[in-house]
């Protein structure tokens, strides 16, 4: 085992894989280039890190990790460092991340070797600019192999790599089998993209996996929690809305949409909105505006189903109100004819009523101007899982007292897992405040006490979250006021009709008359605090939401924080970590309950670090179940007890079940395809440049050019491509057509085809937005200034229909907001700018090839210099697109002064915190005023 | 010599008789011109258009060339209005692109006769219109601008922008809120928050 340290051929490499099947996978993928598809939660990243470690420890290598997410990179980095520390391999250097490195920094780092995590966009550019010589690469490890489609950046990287380097390894990994099963011979296609031949499949039902995991099992308690009656009502109502929406779509598009077997049942667990959208995409232009809206509604309704389970009753109602608010006042002023059809259903009425009644009840009486108290009672229904959770925790406490001394290596911690950070926070707050009494002090709260008493006499509810829920309700009322005052400012055309204004005024007066003296509110709202809700046009059928300002004020008073509540800390979290030692100490893990959201592979580490004795899965999650299995099996003696909570007959139960089934089915399909897969030997064949083709190209060109330009055309064809364009698949496709993409930072244009031809590429979405913000106009101006043949490329999506949106109203003649009209305006303004229409990036590549024929090759240095002002740096500045776009959208920021801002200000947050004087130094007084006002305007 | 003092009318070549797109030119008046007209449509003092259906082009590939020979270069804007009426459009469109580039034609694609008619109407109507509608002009109005800034982040929509700013009270506070606080805003899930967080924390410039 201990080989001599000087022996480089077999350095001692310690592998830390606890389970037999994990070792098996490691050995086989180490020996041979493979695509490993592993079932979720079985420790894929661990195998990857061990593999990387084996190369790292051996030293003298250049291994690139491609396709990993940010979190995965971090995970791998930490795990590698850990393994290096354990194995004490002298040559190991750990994972190096190139994100923050400069171009030359990367070149130097690559030359030294090691294991690198590189983002695909940067790696493409580095490979193309020879910043990293492909021959030097020892191998590539591709994560998330399911995402490597023919046009993806990763496929492009592998192609360039294989072209120049036939001996390096490629090892690909994925833990989601589903994408490999759609389409024709999907596995074979994927393998081709990955330049691999052997798939290696590891479903949960694989023999070695099952053997490894089933020898020791964890104790599992399944708890089927019933939904409350009103929750069931709401779920039924939402499902009805979904059903109606679906049949509405079916009615209008029976030819395009195949929705056999669509029913409420399937709507529960399928991502029906996505399926519908996919079916409609090819004919999207022919679909009516109404259908489009319904498709959008479906997404919203599906979200609603989830929120019903995860949000508390007040937040859920708040969410619904938010929907109503944006439905009734669309800012573009289109009024209410655009309201979603489901809002008019009876079911929607039930939905809104029930949801509101879960939060509070009250009658709408606005007869008297002085808003008489009309029995507004907070109801504050609690989520059934809450009390269940409390019960479990009590049980755990009792149990842990009974067997104190069972020392099995676990820390006795209780781990509560839930779906996301939002829910986490909710649970934390609940556990902190559960059963905290609501001491009432003024007589207003008598009704409240009654409400509490009611809860108690019902007997069932042992644990009360009243404290938290009251806090939520207050937050909601605050929000509601903010929203209305905000909306008034937002539209800034609040004087619609005189009568409207009058009612508004009355409402305002009434509020001022009885505005509660609430200091906390005052701070925030300023003078604006009493602004009434603009009497917005709530959807015809939905009256519930038409909350009168007076009524809200009334409810607000009922909910005034009692003294006890006020004394308690208002906010959780957001502690500045000063004086750490004075106030903090490490908890004893024995008595700790940790609430944590599911975070994919990161959870493996969580389990290892916390060593929980009890795990409460507040929501079901397939991968996490497996992680617990792996954790349990990896440690001989550790006992784990798992509580598994789910709402019976709900979306989450269905989703869990179908996820398990889908994964299993996918693996079965893959195994079948693997069995019948033809071995493709061509994968490596395409690597070498075909000499014959190169010969033909010269001949061809000479003939057409009459021999006169032989020197020019003998060069391999190239296109100069702006670095930002490497997000799209076009550079990759050009490369596939043997046109070399040269990556540089361009100021003018996106693609330079020849010294004269400059192309600005616009996808349809870009086209619409850059017409809106006028960018395309300035870009055309710019191109005209520097190039003889400026062109705008209008590129459609491969999977979408090749046509523009249908005209809005055919009878009314052109309107300036039509896309077509805007194109005409552009053509009239720039008669010299050519339009190129392309149905897909594939076609664009062909068109480019055609346009380049007989043209001289473009010069990269010239192209880079175009449009740069004197003294500006030429090379290597990459801008982050989204932040820069946000910057440019700010008032006061122009096409000229935004550069000064970028010079001195790091990011958006920093900009938002600058004083007016500081801003003035950058952009001048006038602009500074605008920018400052934009950030600091309050409501 | 053909008079091109068209005024407010579209002058249509008699060659176009029977073209279904004519019935969709309604917003502006049109009339037939003299038979010697080289273009299919005269849309202004310096603007003309040729009409081509891909179906026809496939049958008579040389037609366009003959027409171009006689068109002359009296017009600054020469439009080739193409009706895409076949599904195998890739090859012909590639050829047409090349032709347009070498013959100074601006290509406009339409997928239906009404759409083609609409294009002609629009060219005529906007003959003297300033292109302000497509020039950089961001609304000076606060709400619109705020939405504009927020929606630059992928996945953030109007509603999200409005709820976020109304919850935090100002854009500055919304930007400075912690990620956890932002997660509490209705409709802001982890993914959206992550993207937004990245957009406002990421430096404008990377690398040197």
Automatic annotation (TrEMBL), chain A:
Residues 718-798 form the ERCC4 domain. GO terms for biological process: double-strand break repair via homologous recombination; double-strand break repair via single-strand annealing, removal of nonhomologous ends; nucleotide-excision repair involved in interstrand cross-link repair; resolution of meiotic recombination intermediates. GO terms for cellular component: nucleotide-excision repair factor 1 complex. InterPro entries: ERCC4_domain, Restrct_endonuc-II-like, RuvA_2-like, XPF, XPF_nuclease. Its main location: nucleus. The keyword Transcription regulation does not apply. Pfam families: ERCC4. Keywords: DNA damage, DNA repair, DNA-binding, Endonuclease, Hydrolase, Nuclease, Nucleus. Residues 530-542 have a biased composition (Low complexity). It comes from the Eukaryota. This is ERCC4 domain-containing protein. SMART domains: ERCC4.
């Amino acid at each position: 085992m201990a080989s001599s340290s000087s022996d480089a051929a077999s350095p001692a490499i310690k592998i830390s894989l606890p389970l037999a099947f994990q070792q098996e996978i490691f050995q086989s993928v180490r020996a041979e280039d493979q695509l490993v598809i592993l079932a979720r939660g079985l420790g894929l990243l661990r195998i990857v890190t061990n593999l990387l470690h084996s190369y790292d420890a051996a030293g003298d290598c250049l291994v690139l990790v491609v396709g990993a997410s940010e979190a995965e990179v971090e995970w791998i980095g930490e795990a590698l460092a850990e393994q290096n520390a354990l194995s004490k391999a002298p040559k190991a250097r750990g994972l190096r991340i190139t994100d923050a490195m400069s171009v030359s920094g990367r070149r130097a780092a690559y030359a030294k070797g090691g294991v690198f995590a590189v983002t695909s966009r940067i790696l493409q550019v580095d490979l193309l600019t020879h910043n990293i010589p492909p021959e030097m690469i020892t191998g590539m490890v591709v994560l998330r192999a399911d995402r490597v489609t023919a046009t993806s950046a990763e496929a492009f990287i592998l192609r360039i790599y294989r072209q120049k380097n036939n001996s390096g390894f490629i090892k690909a990994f994925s833990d989601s089998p589903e994408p490999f099963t759609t389409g024709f011979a999907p596995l074979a296609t994927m393998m081709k993209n990955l330049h691999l031949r052997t798939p290696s499949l590891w479903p949960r039902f694989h023999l070695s996996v099952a053997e490894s995991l089933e020898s020791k099992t964890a104790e599992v308690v399944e708890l089927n929690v019933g939904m409350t009656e009103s929750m069931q009502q709401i779920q039924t109502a939402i499902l009805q809305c979904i059903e109606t929406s679906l049949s509405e779509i079916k009615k209008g598009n029976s030819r395009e949409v195949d929705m056999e077997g669509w029913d409420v049942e399937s709507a529960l667990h399928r991502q029906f909105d996505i399926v519908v959208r996919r079916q409609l995409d090819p004919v999207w232009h022919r679909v009516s505006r109404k259908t489009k809206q319904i498709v959008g509604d479906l997404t919203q309704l599906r979200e609603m189903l989830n929120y019903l389970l995860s949000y508390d009753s007040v937040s859920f109602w708040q969410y619904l109100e938010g929907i109503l608010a944006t439905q009734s006042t669309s800012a573009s002023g289109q009024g209410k004819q655009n309201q979603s059809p489901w809002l008019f259903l009876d079911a929607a009425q039930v939905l809104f009523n029930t949801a509101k009644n879960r939060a509070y009840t009250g009658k709408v009486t606005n007869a008297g101007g002085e808003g008489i108290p009309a029995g507004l009672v907070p109801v504050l229904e609690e989520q059934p899982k809450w009390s269940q959770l409390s019960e479990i925790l009590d049980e755990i406490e009792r149990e842990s007292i009974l067997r104190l001394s069972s020392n099995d290596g676990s820390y006795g911690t209780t781990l509560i897992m839930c779906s996301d950070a939002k829910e986490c926070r909710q649970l934390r707050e609940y556990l902190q405040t559960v059963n905290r009494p609501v001491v009432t002090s003024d007589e207003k709260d008598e009704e409240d006490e009654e409400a509490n008493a009611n809860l108690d006499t019902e007997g069932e509810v042992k644990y009360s979250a009243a404290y938290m829920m009251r806090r939520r309700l207050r937050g909601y009322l605050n929000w509601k006021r903010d929203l209305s005052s905000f909306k008034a400012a937002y539209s800034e055309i609040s004087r619609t009709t005189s009568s409207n204004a009058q009612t508004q005024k009355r409402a305002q007066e009434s509020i001022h008359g009885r505005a509660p003296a609430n200091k906390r509110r005052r701070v925030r709202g300023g003078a604006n605090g009493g602004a009434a809700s603009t009497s917005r046009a709530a959807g015809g059928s939905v009256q519930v939401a038409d909350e009168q300002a007076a009524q809200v004020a009334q409810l607000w008073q009922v909910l005034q924080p009692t003294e006890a509540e006020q004394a308690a800390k208002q906010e959780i979290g957001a502690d500045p970590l000063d004086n750490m030692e004075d106030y903090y100490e490490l908890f004893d893990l024995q008595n700790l309950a940790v609430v944590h959201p599911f975070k994919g592979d990161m959870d493996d580490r969580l389990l290892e670090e916390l060593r929980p004795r009890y795990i409460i899965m507040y929501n079901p999650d397939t991968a996490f179940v497996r992680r617990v299995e792996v954790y349990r099996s990896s440690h001989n003696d550790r006992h784990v007890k798992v509580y598994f909570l789910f709402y019976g007959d709900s979306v989450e139960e269905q989703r869990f079940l179908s996820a398990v089934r889908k994964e299993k089915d996918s693996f079965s399909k893959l195994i079948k395809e693997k069995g019948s897969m033809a071995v493709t030997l061509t994968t490596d064949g395409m690597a070498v440049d075909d000499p014959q083709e190169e010969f033909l190209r010269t001949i061809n060109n000479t003939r057409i050019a009459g021999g006169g330009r032989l020197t020019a055309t003998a060069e391999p064809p190239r296109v100069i491509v702006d670095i930002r364009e490497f997000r799209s698949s076009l550079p990759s496709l050009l490369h596939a057509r043997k046109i070399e993409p040269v990556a540089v930072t361009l100021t003018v244009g996106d693609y330079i085809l020849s010294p004269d031809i400059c192309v600005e590429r616009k996808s349809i979405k870009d086209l619409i937005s850059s017409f809106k913000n006028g960018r395309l106009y300035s870009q055309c101006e710019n191109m005209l200034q520097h190039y003889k043949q400026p062109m705008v490329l209008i590129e459609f999506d491969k999977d979408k229909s090749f046509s523009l949106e249908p005209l809005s109203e055919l009878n009314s003649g052109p309107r300036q907001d039509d896309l077509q009209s805007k194109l005409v305006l552009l053509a009239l303004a720039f008669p010299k700018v050519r339009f190129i229409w392309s149905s897909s990036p594939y076609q664009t590549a062909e068109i480019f090839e055609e346009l380049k024929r007989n043209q001289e090759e473009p010069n990269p240095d010239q192209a880079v210099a175009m449009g740069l002002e004197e003294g500006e740096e030429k090379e290597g500045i990459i801008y982050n697109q989204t932040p820069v776009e946000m910057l440019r959208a700010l008032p006061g920021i122009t096409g000229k002064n935004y550069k000064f801002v970028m010079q001195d200000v790091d990011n958006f947050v920093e900009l938002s915190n600058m004083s007016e004087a500081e801003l003035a130094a950058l952009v001048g007084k006038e602009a500074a005023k605008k920018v400052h006002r934009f950030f600091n305007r309050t409501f | 010599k053909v008079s091109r003092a068209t005024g407010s009318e579209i002058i249509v070549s008699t060659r176009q008789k029977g073209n279904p797109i004519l019935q969709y030119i309604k917003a502006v008046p049109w009339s037939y011109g003299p038979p010697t007209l080289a273009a299919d449509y005269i849309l202004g003092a310096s603007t003309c258009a040729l009409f081509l259906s891909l179906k026809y082009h496939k049958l008579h590939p040389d037609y366009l060339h003959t027409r171009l020979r006689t068109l002359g270069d009296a017009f600054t804007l020469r439009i080739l209005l193409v009706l895409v009426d076949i599904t195998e459009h890739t090859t012909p469109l590639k050829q047409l692109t090349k032709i347009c580039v070498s013959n100074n034609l601006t290509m406009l694609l339409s997928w239906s006769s009404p759409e083609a008619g609409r294009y002609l109407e629009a060219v005529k109507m906007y003959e003297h219109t300033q292109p302000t509608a497509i020039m950089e002009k961001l609304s000076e109005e606060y709400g619109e601008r705020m939405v504009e800034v927020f929606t630059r982040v992928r996945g953030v929509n109007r509603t999200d922008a409005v709820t976020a700013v109304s919850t935090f009270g100002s854009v500055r506070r919304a930007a400075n809120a912690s990620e956890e606080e932002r997660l509490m805003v209705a409709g802001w899930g982890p993914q959206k928050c992550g993207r937004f967080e990245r957009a406002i924390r990421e430096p404008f410039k990377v690398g040197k």
